[in-house]
Amino acid sequence: MTKNWTPLAAAYLVLSVIGLIGAWTFNAFAIVQARDFIGDWVGSGPAVSSLTVDLLVVAVAGSVLIIVEARRLGMRFGWLYVVLAGLTAFAFTFPLFLAARERTLEATRRAGRQYAAADEGNPDGGS
Fold first, then answer.
1. How far is CA 106 from the centre of its chain?
2. How many Cβ atoms from other residues are within 10 Å of residue 54's Cβ?
């Protein structure tokens, strides 16, 4: 049952359960109270609380992903995206991080292709 479950995978699973319970608790309140769920978004009510929990859990999970992935890829200042989210918006910093991540991955792919091409030109096969 615990095969391939890393602490990070478990943390994401816990956040997933918190998100489900938190958001659907307020969704249930909206249903029981026969609220206009979409209309409540611009006013107040359970829909706003559900959306708040939803976005908060996504921001926490995304922040963990940013820090872990930045470290894994050797990206400097990964924590800064999380700090900037508090000053600007997670909707800004998460896609910004994804763009920087994609650039890092492409640079790694290019370096790998250049290494492979240089290795192919080596008469002794890279030994």
1. 19
2. 17
Distance between alpha carbon 35 and the CA centroid of its chain, in Å?
31
Report whether pLDDT(40) > 80. Answer: no
What pLDDT score was predicted for residue 101? 93
DSSP character string of 20-82: HHHHHHHHHHHHHTT--HHHHHHS-SHHHHHHHHHHHHHHHHHHHHHHHHHHHHT-TTHHHHH
Q: What is the Cα–Cα distance from 97 to 70, expressed in whole angstroms?
A: 9
Q: Which residues contact 123 (CB under 8 A, 6 or more apart)?
A: none
- Compute the average pLDDT of residues 58-82: 96
> In 10 A of CB 119, how many CB atoms?
11
